[in-house]
Amino acid sequence: MRNLYLVRHGMVAFPGGVKRCIGRTDLFLDDTGRRQAEALGRYFLGRQDLQVFCSPLARARETALILSRGRLPVQVVDGLAELDMGEWENCPMSELKKDLESEPANGEGRESGLKRFRETIDGILESTEGDIVCVAHAGVNCCYLADLLGSPLNTSRALAQPYGCFSRIEVDESGKLTVAELGRMAVAAPDRAECERILEHYRTPEQVRAHCRQVCRQALLLGGRLKNAGYQVDMALVQSAALLHDVARAKADHAVQGAQWILREGYPQVADIILRHHDLGNPSSHPYETTIVYLADKLVQGERVVNLEERFQRSRSRCQGAGQPEEALKAHERRYREAREAMGRVREWIGEENISGLTG
């Protein structure tokens, strides 16, 4: 078994900060893009067996050179270039009227782009052994991944390919290719600055962001006590999931929508926690980080720290006052029992003597 790591280059330095549709337009990375490439380099650190290939376009070459850290030779391959965007080339994204199935006039269609890219990858695999990294672009990556996944080519742009991500493709002895990981970032959790960027990108209201920051403070307090009690807790994961748990608060079924957004950003572990922050289920069936963020959210009303009884009494009163159906009240009581059970589990984990300062 060998692995093909299909990388999308890092974020691009668009002139004037205006994001544009670029295919063959040659632009370099911005500071964020260089940090993303450095994170990829750390992910692959110590892999002397890797071979690195890249598109001839500057943003891909720069990503590959930073990723390789001068340890590995980088081979430029023309066939890894991005689709030619034709009439869309260099147009501001905000001005383009297109949907998933649209293709630009006078550009390179997805079918021809896929054929060219697939032949290039096949040639690289045939001429090498061991694991390889190919640094390319969102358009061609999505075409190739859709083909491997059996997804419709005409909606390939729906696949997650954030800047600086990679998809891991397993290649067995017979040459069969299987997508094992899709569009994930090199780090499991974004830092605070990246979380704030994501909240801004999805236009999360400021009052919701303030709630998320308070939840984050409580989650880090709780996570720290678990670590002090000897449990293995990923504090970076706790921090990012807490900051982003309500990213889609204004949307219906916000936990599901938020998880989908963060999955598209390339953070599947964070997305899993966001998916569970509203309805936990059995706390013993989830990682510590999931229970920590869930419980911290239940201990914060707006920006104010409360106890579980106060939090659920308020929501119970709203349900009753709004005349909601019996099913809604039963769901509310179920959530309250789940929260109490989660608090009980935390008491078991860290001991009663370490519970002071945690309400519930």
Give a short summary of the structure:
With 360 residues, this protein is an alpha/beta fold.
Question: Which bin fits the share of residues in helices?
Answer: 40-55%
**Coarse shape:** elongated
Radius of gyration: 23 Å
Number of helices: 12
How large a portion of the residues is in β-strands, by DSSP E? 5-15%
Termini gap? 50 Å
CATH architecture verdict of the largest domain: 3-Layer(aba) Sandwich
The CATH homologous superfamily of the largest domain is named Phosphoglycerate mutase-like
Question: CATH topology of the largest domain, what is it called?
Answer: Rossmann fold
User: What's the CATH first level of the largest domain?
Assistant: Alpha Beta
- The largest sheet has its strands arranged as 4-3-6-1-7-8
Helix and strand succession?
Answer: EEHEHEEHEHEEHHHHHHEEHH
| SS elements, strand count | 10
